[in-house]
Amino acid sequence: MRSKPLLLLDVDGVLNPSRRSSLRYRRHNCVVDGGLYRLLLDRRHGPLLLSLARDTNAELVWATTWEEHANVEIAPRVGLPRLPVIRVTGDPVSKAGEHFKTRPVADYVDGRPFVWFDDGLTTADDDYLRAHEGVGDFLLVHVDARHGLDGNHLAQAREWLTGTAGAAD
Ligand SMILES: [Mg+2]
User: Fold this and answer.
1) Cα of 11 to ligand 1 centre, how many Å?
2) What is the C-alpha end-to-end distance of the chain, expressed in Å?
3) Residue 111 is part of which domain span?
4) Average pLDDT of 13-33?
5) Which pTM was predicted?
6) How close is the Cα of 40 to the center of ligand 1, in Å?
7) Rg of the chain over CA atoms, in angstroms?
């Protein structure tokens, strides 16, 4: 039996776009470690992601430099529960042009299929993950940071999980 797929979730550029691309986004100020962050968040994102996870029997996980702060500052504002966190800020070394989050992600997934919603991934990340022992099937969903996560991204994930990764061996 296949292991449960993962849905990896970024914050900045995905849940928090760089501009207010839709009226659904509301402005939020939050203070983390004494720094003020101005965010644009859409309360529909949580329910949409939760139904995607439920329907595809997948597990949502944070893959963001917000790390645990995402559970405190982001999750309640978009309607998500507390989620597991991939620690991505520990060793920001990139050897082949891959994103600094890509190595920690490769270690974390441990062979489980995964979809990764992020605005900062390139072909270097795809190459890195394909070459990395222990990384199984995956889909990188490239989100435009100016617009944030939308229905097309969720549909891509749903299609891939139900058509490929979700299929029985
Ligand atoms: Mg980002």
Assistant:
1) 6
2) 7
3) 6-165
4) 95
5) 0.93
6) 13
7) 15
